[in-house]
Model the fold of this input.
Amino acid sequence: MKPRNLLTDPTRSPLVAASILSADFARLQDDSQAAIDAGADLLHVDIMDAHFVPNLSMGPAIASSLRKAMPDVFMDVHLMVTDPETYIRRFADAGADSCTFHIEVVPEPEPLVGLAHELGMTAGLALNPDTPVEQILSHIELPDMILIMSVHPGFSGQSFISEVLEKMKQVRPLLRPDQRIEVDGGVSPATASSCREAGADVLVSASAIFGSDDYRREISALAGS
Ligand code: DX5
Ligand code: ZN
Done:
């Protein structure tokens, strides 16, 4: 049985999401399992279409293989695509536990959040660094998670944009205890504490984890434990 309520369980906080974008794709299962064994709570799967962002990454087939290889892992899919409506069902079929899409391409997100829920997934709504926080404020009730991007999406290994901390501080008091703020991009042991203080409780990290020779040490530092 998959831990479908991981995101909405307020007793588990903060969560660390290992973004497999920086994993060794030739050893994806081993590297992903090593991150989970080292304490990562979930796997963050970055889907890029070379249109919404200037890069290509992976598609539903990889998510599906990962699900078969790791039946119990919580799979957090981040759709950086122009038309998430077209793909959300395919990621549900592939075994995603959560699907996040961007407000920049779905300005009225409620129907798609509803579809994610109907498909048995939690739903996240993401916001790019240049998008004003006001754009999501009237849409935060239904999603289970608000994803505040702290880099311009497309690549791992970029520097954290600290101005986005203000967005987290603004959104946090407006959320219920069963809703999460996820932060994604440039999150490292050096930047994680300011994210946690600003209210983020799902910390995504690719290069800080997979670029390290000690995943456990990095994940503990990210979680502040
Ligand atoms: C960026 C992706 C991130 C990325 C984070 O577009 O959404 O999830 O993998 O990479 P790091 O942690 O290296 O900034
Ligand atoms: Zn991401």
Observations:
- The first helix runs from residue 28 to 37.
